Amino acid sequence: MSSEILSVRPTEPDDLPVLMAIYAHAREEILYLRAMGIRLTLVLHEFSDPQWFARLGGWSKTGNIGLFLDYEEKILRTVGHLVEDYVPMSQPNLFAWNGWYSGAWLPGRKSLLAARQVMSVLTLAHIESYRRIHALRRELGLRNTRVGASVYMRRIHPGKKKAPLLSAGTDALERLFQSAMGEAMVCGRFSAVIANPGHVPKGSY
Fold first, then answer.
1. What 8-state DSSP symbol labels residue 196?
2. Is the dihedral of CA 50, 52, 58, 63 positive or negative?
3. Residues 6+ apart with CB under 8 A from 154
């Protein structure tokens, strides 16, 4: 059984009293759930960003990944000894698609190129998070660390059995929306769909 912890959210990057209060509250919640016999999966990002992070360009800039990793390190040093299982980002392909391509979510963009850029940065952020979580828990003398990837998957089909053009378009959409990002996040297999700004080698992430 797992519980996604979404309440740990920085307000301003230098607002330490607020941050410490948030982290302390998250620790209390985790201790309570562990006392109930619940094994947690800690999700570090799910569909929303602090306003200050968005103002800096958010996930459109690779340079902002370091801000997320700093936040992640604060979380790990607060509750890392209480949680073994982590998902850095929940369904980042859906987050990028709805925010930067369909415009259904904030920031309301409608640009395929912008969506591809954000998906590429989120992919790199997942891989860097995978590395950071394992390294931090090793530094803390903790074992049995598990870091998973979360990709929103759905069946995408043309709706007509004999429509080669529709079928080809459907295959391209499926790859763009989900499978290309999943392969890059988990295996380091990048393609023309998902860029590799961090020059990540193939591997398991």
1. -
2. negative
3. 178
Contact 28, 35 (CB under 8 A): no
Tens-place pLDDT, residues 140-155: 999 999 999 999 998 8
DSSP letter assigned to residue 175: I
pLDDT tens digit sequence for 41-73: 999 998 988 888 888 999 999 999 999 998 888
pLDDT, tens digit, for every residue of 152-200? 998 877 766 655 555 666 888 888 889 999 999 999 999 989 999 999 9
Question: Sheet holding 41-43: strands in order across?
Answer: 41-43, 85-87, 146-147
Centre a 10 Å sphere on the Cβ of residue 201 and count the other Cβ atoms it contains: 8
pTM (two decimals) = 0.87
How many Å apart are CA 51 and CA 49, to the nearest integer? 6
**Two tokens at 105?**
């979510």
Task: Tell me phi and psi for residue 169, to 5 degrees.
Answer: -65, -35
Q: Do 4 and 46 form a contact (C-beta atoms < 8 A)?
A: yes
30: its two tokens? 């985790």
